[in-house]
Amino acid sequence: MLEVLDIAAVRRWSSLAVAGLSRHEQALNQLNVYPVPDGDTGTNLLLTLSAAEQAVGGALTDALSTGAVLRTMARGALLGARGNSGVISAQWLAGLADAVDGDGLAAALDAAAKSAYAAVARPVEGTILTVARAAAEAAHQGSDEPAAVRAAVLGARDALARTPEQLPVLAAAGVVDAGGQGLVLLLEALLEALTGEHDESEVDGAAAYVGEHGHDHGHAGHGHGSAALTYRGPAYEVQFLIDTGAAEIAELRGALDRLGDSLVIVGGAPTWRVHVHVDDAGAALEAGLAAGRPYQIQITHLTSATAEGAPRRPDPTARAVVVTAAGDGIEELLIAEGAVAIGGNPSTAEVLDAILATGAGRVAVLPTDSNLRAVCQAAAEEAFGEGVKVRVVPTRSPVQAMAALAVRDHSRRFEDDVIAMAEAAGACRSAEVTTASRDALTVAGRCRPGDVIALVEGEVNLIGDDLTTVCCGLLDRMLASGGELVTLLTGAQAPDGLVEAVTAHVATRWPFVEVHAYPGGQPHYPLLVGVE
């Protein structure tokens, strides 16, 4: 039995927490009826703690204190946080980390609970917050660290059992709070990491509940039955990361509090995680832009209806642009141009959510990868049934999307504007430089694993063994057929000095060509190129 929470125990805790949440993911989803009955609390907590585990696993811990490793864990959770419970859990971990090197685990659990409460604009009892506070209060009954955590687990379980008494929506559904149950699992994993005692709760996600008309709807196949528990809150969940100062965050908190509810802002200068439920996702993003540069934006269309039960309809006079983006820098550039950016490799549902979240009746969608065009087109067809006219502009690279956004003009008819964007994208020749992963016979010759290859419009055009040489050779070939403006987006793996070398080469060889370079942050491709 360990007497203190050391670095090895933190690593065990993160792994055990992920394992426990993975076992109970679906049951937690079925418990999820507050604040929105969207059935994703288990998934959100699992994704949040998985990001935390990854961060701890990658930390070099030899010279770090327990608090420093916990701060790494909390930072990973912050960057990977999903949903209301995930964001609050990340802040709970941050509070724990900041205090654990001081007066012991009981005091640290106190700090964690206070930190979680402070993150929420309007705390509600009967939630994960109540469970966190009860665990902290109970922990002081323990005579040593393991006993404190053991007492915290018992206190958390007791508080969880009472959550239906505090939130009528839980009582009506016959369930306990999903986020609170997730925190109980985290504390049980902490106890196991410290003592080796495996005493895990049974999570009953298939509890029967009574809907609005008093009928019993509960069985495992129907989850938490969100159809019966009518959600009448805001239409969209908006989440993003933002790098800014405390003063700007205070203004952002006030602006978002006026726009919606379920507002949670966690983190600390310079990086913050923002979560809010709003009817106007565009206004929430505008508030974010006023405070800094939001990135990793996630917009989810919540299953909702107005108080009268009528479906929400888009504004037929409003326009918006949705763009896919792989890379934080690319997201920032696209957002600065007024687009809604979806990171990563989105599904049809995620693209559809982003389209509907704009609230606009006319939406242009710009895929920045040819593999995403079919996904975007499927989302466009689904959006038509929601009363939104969507046009997918044929773009295959972020540089083409930037060219398309540069010519938007709302004074034109929507269809004419789409045509202008498509023409601008088509006039921008795109290329990317990457490393070959396997042997292949290309139009430029045979490439082998590790070779640097340059692709123009998706076709291998140049093969070499030095990144800078290939990049310069690529620009020479593209500019030989004309061009006045070059756009360079550097990737996450781009070495220092690459942009300077390429820019200097263009200035010498093509002195009348203008070069704009930006950090794109995209994976796999050290350099993306656009020539107009």
The proportion of residues in beta strands is 15-25%
User: Could you tell me how far the N terminus lies from the C terminus, measured between alpha carbons in angstroms?
Assistant: 66 Å
Count of strand segments: 16
Low-confidence stretches: 206-230, 304-312
Helix content: 40-55%
Radius of gyration: 26 Å
- So what's the oligomer here? single chain
Backbone shape? globular
Number of helices: 19
Helix vs. strand class = alpha/beta
Largest sheet: 6 strands, mixed
Strand order of the largest sheet: 13-12-9-16-14-15
Estimate the mean pLDDT confidence: 83
Please, could you describe this protein's structure?
The structure is a single chain. The chain is of the alpha/beta class. 47% of the residues lie in helices and 19% in strands. Helix 14 packs across helix 15 (373-384). The protein is globular and about 75 Å long.
